Amino acid sequence: MAKTADENFKQGEEFIQTFHREDLGYDGCIKAYDDEKIVKIYHSMREIMSYDVSGTIANILAGLIPDITKAKILDLAAGSGMIGKGLYDRGFRNVDAHDGAAAMVDYCRTTGHYKDFFTCFVGNGQTLPMEDDTYDGISCSGATVNIHLPASAQREIARVIKPGGQNIVVNAAKVEIEQYAQGLGTSKTCQHINMDKAQVRNINMSTLYHN
Ligand SMILES: C[S@@+](CC[C@H](N)C(=O)[O-])C[C@H]1O[C@@H](n2cnc3c(N)ncnc32)[C@H](O)[C@@H]1O
């Protein structure tokens, strides 16, 4: 029998509590997401909560990147692909999905919103498989929170994004990791946009990537 919205929400809340466990660690975080049942619960919960910043992210990127049908975008820590949907609906057609949890990436494959797929942990010395200077823009929604992307993942974000003023990293949802709010430690110039938990209400744009 199909689950009710209340049941989904409760299970989703229980899942989120997982990340309050101090001993979970970064690997434990990925394992927690890497489960088909969790993918469905997570996806439906986000719908119930109307937590959807995808349109905002897509509009921000579209406002700053000239040719959105060609612009190469990375949806970092894509989860169940909600940002990919927003980008697709806005007209982006060259978006790659990345996540450390294979079950999440597998779900993204079914959506038709992405071009290429990458399953790998990023940060703590583990790198992305893409070449330097690959992407015109990167979205990163909901992954700069406790025990998700380590601050060291920023080096990889900076490496794969193209240098230049039109390149954007959007960190949506609460930025709990201070380094993400401050920016990256590289010499690349690009725009870095942080959105607070209330989304759109407080968009904080800064040019960064200073040494
Ligand atoms: C809260 S979800 C956000 C998903 C999606 N961006 C969204 O806004 O709905 C966080 C995602 O980050 C992924 N993740 C967390 N830490 C990661 C890491 N170090 N490397 C790769 N993926 C990671 C998880 O597997 C999970 O799918």
Structure explained in plain terms:
This protein has a seven-stranded mixed β-sheet with strand order 3-2-1-4-5-6-7. It is globular, with a radius of gyration of 16 Å. Helix 1 (about 5-15) packs across helix 3 and helix 4 packs across helix 5. Residues about 195-210 have low confidence and may be disordered. It is α/β, with parallel strands linked by helices and about 210 residues long. The protein has one domain (about 55-210): Vaccinia Virus protein VP39 (Rossmann fold, 3-Layer(aba) Sandwich), CATH 3.40.50.150. It has helices spanning about 5-15, 25-35, 35-50, 55-65, 80-90, 100-110, 155-160, 180, and strands at about 75, 95-100, 115-120, 135-140, 170, 190-195, 205-210. The structure holds S-adenosylmethionine. S-adenosylmethionine binds near residues 26, 83 and 100.
User: What is the average of the pLDDT values?
Assistant: 79
* Low-confidence segments: 197-211
Tell me the span between the first and last alpha carbons. Answer: 56 Å
Radius of gyration: 16 Å
Assign the CATH architecture: 3-Layer(aba) Sandwich
Spell out the helices and strands N to C: HHHHEHEHEEHEHEE
